[in-house]
Amino acid sequence: MANPAPASFWTQANALFRKNITYQKRNVKTNILLILFPVLLCVLLVVLQRALDRVQSKDNDGNNCVNKSNNEGGANWYTTGDVSKVPVCAVPNPPQWPPFFQLPNLQFSAFQTNILPFSDLQQNKCRAHDKCALIMLFTASNFSFAQSVYGNMFTSPFHIDPTDTMGSLATNVLGTETVQVENIYLEPAFAVDVPIYYLQNKCKLNSTFSITFEEGGVTFDDKEVRCIQCLRLWRNSSSDINSELYQGYYNGNTKGQINEIAAAFDLLNSNENGFNVIIWHTSTKRSDARSINLISNAYLQSVVGPSAKMLFDFVKEMPKHWITSKIDIGSLLGSLLYIWVIMQLFPVILASLVYEKEQKLRLMMQMHGLSHGPYWVISYGYFLTISVIYMLCFVVFGSLLGLSFFRLNDYSVQFVFYFIYINLQISVAFLVSSMFSKVKTATVSAFIVVFSTGLLAGFLSESSVSSSSLPTWWTIVMELYPGFALSRGLYEFADSASNGDGVQWENMTDSTSGMIQVLIIMSVEWIVVLYVAYYIDQGRSPLSFFKRSRKQHSSSTQKLSIGQQLGYNAMVHLQKPDIMQEREKVEQLLLQPTSNHAIVCDELKKVYPGQDGNPEKVAVRGLSLALPQGECFGMLGPNGAGKTSFINMMIGLTKPTAGTAYVQGLDIRNQINEIYTTTGVCPQHDLLWESLTGREHLLFYGRLKNLKGSALTQAVEESLKNLNIFHGGVADKRAGTYSGGMKRRLSVAISLIGDPKVVYMDEPSTGLDPASRNSLWNVIKVAKQDRAIILTTHSMEEAEALCDRLGIFVNGSLQCIGNPTELKSRYGGSYVFTITTHLYHEKNVENMVLQFSPNAKKIYHISGTQKFELPKGEVRISDVFRAVENAKRHFTVSAWGLADTTMEDVFIKVARGAQESIDLS
Fold first, then answer.
1. Residues 502-522: what's their mean pLDDT?
2. The model's pTM
3. What is the arithmetic mean of pLDDT over 457-477?
4. Across 475-495, average pLDDT
5. Which terminus of the chain faces fewer neighbouring Cβ atoms within 10 Å, N or C?
């Protein structure tokens, strides 16, 4: 009968795809919550945005702002007299304020000191009477012209026309002490309680007035205005003025401002034909336009005449929009929150990959024929699909909810950026999964990476972009880490959205934009990381693609050295007739490729290279074995004997160091994919998906064996019935609910699905109760009739019940081979006599045994119970019975028995002898 065709690439991919779809149906709630996570974040951002808008659209008392104007042109809140709303509400029509000269604090007005030894300065006694004058300094290249100019500064007496208050204030020079306020929408003289002064050459008695001022419907009643004298002093040069200003502002006293000058003017080369001036004025947030008007008006009057006026009517702020339109939560918090949202997929993907590795499900699929290619295509495609849906929900819902972060940036740019990054993220997850063997460790590590990246990335990205001192190569090095590259891209999106234009294809070439750089770095990393991860996943070096010829050259040398190292093992085998006979049989079968033997092993060897200074480990030493169709071969041996290494070579998990084996005439070295179609494996531990049912397991593995349509359905139903998993709806229950016996039967059913011609069973009945074990044995007995089975076990009872031939494997080599009866006859050769008497009669028992078996050997003795090993060649069973009956007349015999040699005795004897031989060598 011809071997069935191996499952093609797309057949394997279809099997894995169907299994994944079924598996995800069991976890639909988890998947929905995962995909909805970015949606919930967008909703949260919108709620925060609306809450912020509501807060910002109210005044300090929690009242809503009114966006209307009254008939006078002022904002509506002016008509109510509530000026507290100015900092938080819109000002579409700012009011007109009279111009004020910004004055220093009058208690610090300059006077004559040791540091300022100018004789024209006032004496310090003026501070005691609170009558200090303001000090203004002048200089120019033309003294007489400058004198005429500043002589015209305060020529008009203070006068207020009640019918035109604003006009009256324009003709007078008013001033207030400089006060820093939190907003610039109110004149400090009216916003806070500060004095108002009018500047004169000399103040008269009773020079204090009260004025009433109305603007925008708001009336300021009886504002007191006091006169203050202004002294205009000449200095020889601009440098003298600088020195006096500096010394007066700070003279070493820690109290700071003590001798301040109100203003200073340098008329330079000004004359009747030109006006050129430098002005020093008090530092303030509000530019002192009044000082410019003051000197300009004085110059105009000195040149044209006293009738000339350059009036400064009022100052007016720029209109102010609503503050709520200026703050976008999505752009403000995006660089941090969006990093966490997008990288949230990394722990999910990594945990899924490590879960299959930890539970050895990937290994199980590989043993049943799933190649690396289909696994990568389906797994990668599944993670990519989940990631694309995740990001689409993120962008679509963020746009629908009105977040400018998504709406302003070009959607095609966003798609390219997110698509490249999620592919890079999946590739990194595949690469990193090779470093972990536990899901918990991988998940915790991944979340630490996600949160630390979010906290560091925003700071590092913004600092690298905004700091011109950092070289370009440093930014590139940082972006080689995928998390920082993601952060830089999101920073570009957020920064452009906050500016109101967004990232577009046409502005990505700007020198200030790093989007092109990020896309290039992530694209190259995606390809490199994917390539490295794929080769590491196969247990190969990523450089093996470039070193194939060199590797082939070195392999022949390695085989030669291994053969020299193991040469002594052939001499050992030649001394054992059964092993020698098996080798001769293998050599004969190799000359007859048309034989019906299912397995032929030819000098199969496996050596693991030494690491960290340790010598190399020889696991399998030149194994030769021939297994015909319809035979169950049992491999017995202590732990570490090499049984698992042998099976791993036979199922393609590891490559043989030397020699080879043929399964159904196919070489395990280069035809392993074809061998998988005829092979079934039952591992020592149940490797099952707890979310899948028994039927779904069999459907998946049946498809891997290239079963389709009705043939697949029929094979699954027969397997369920034969293994007693069909009745009571057990087949459609999740494997996680199965008992230990049911899981074991399902594992055996999986190994037999698809009618494999060769089956490997690693301790199939371990941990089963007697009833389940007997049921499982019956299935194996029926199954071995038309297939070859290699079974490993530590149960001698199981070996005798199931196996046609047995081989005892010690230290990597077969020590004996044959059916159970032959082995017991060959290595037993004795009976075991057990008798229990009183302690006083133990000596009598020994004398009795030596009478019918002079060479008997005591092998056990405790509390009156003794065991003796009797050579079969010198004792007859009838003599033993006769001796015991005779002994009962002289002393009490509580119990006795005579047993033939068991397989357990044979196993212990062979294993002990082999170990002693190794120790002697």
1. 80
2. 0.64
3. 64
4. 82
5. N
Residue-level pLDDT at 422: 93
Three-state secondary structure of 92-117: CCCCEECCEEEECCHHHECCCCCCCC
Domains within the chain, CATH numbers bracketed: 95-316 (no CATH), 325-542 (no CATH), 829-900 (3.30.70.100)
Contacts of 344 (CB under 8 A, 6+ apart): 37, 450
Q: Say how far apart CA 150 and CA 147 lie, in whole Å.
A: 6
Q: DSSP E strands: which ranges in 588-735?
A: 597-608, 617-628, 632-636, 658-663, 666-667, 679-682
pLDDT tens digits, 291-321: 888 899 899 989 998 888 888 888 877 777 6
Report whether pLDDT(557) > 70: no
Q: Are 250 and 283 within 8 A, CB to CB?
A: no
Angle at 460 between CA 459 and CA 463, to 5 degrees: 80
The pLDDT assigned to 5 comes to 65
The secondary element (H helix, E strand) that includes residue 221 is strand 218-234
Is residue 52 within 8 Å of 324, Cβ to Cβ?
Answer: yes
- The tokens describing 190, both together, are 């009216």
Q: How high is the pLDDT of residue 287?
A: 61
Whether residue 218 has pLDDT greater than 70: no
Element (H, E) at 915: helix 903-920
As a whole number of angstroms, the distance between CA 507 and CA 294 comes to 48
Q: How far apart are CA 533 and CA 530, in angstroms?
A: 5
CB proximity list for 109: less than 8 A, separation 6 or greater: 122, 126, 127, 132, 133, 134, 135, 259, 260, 262
CA gap 433, 442 in Å, rounded: 8
Are 793 and 636 spatial neighbours (Cβ–Cβ below 8 Å)?
yes
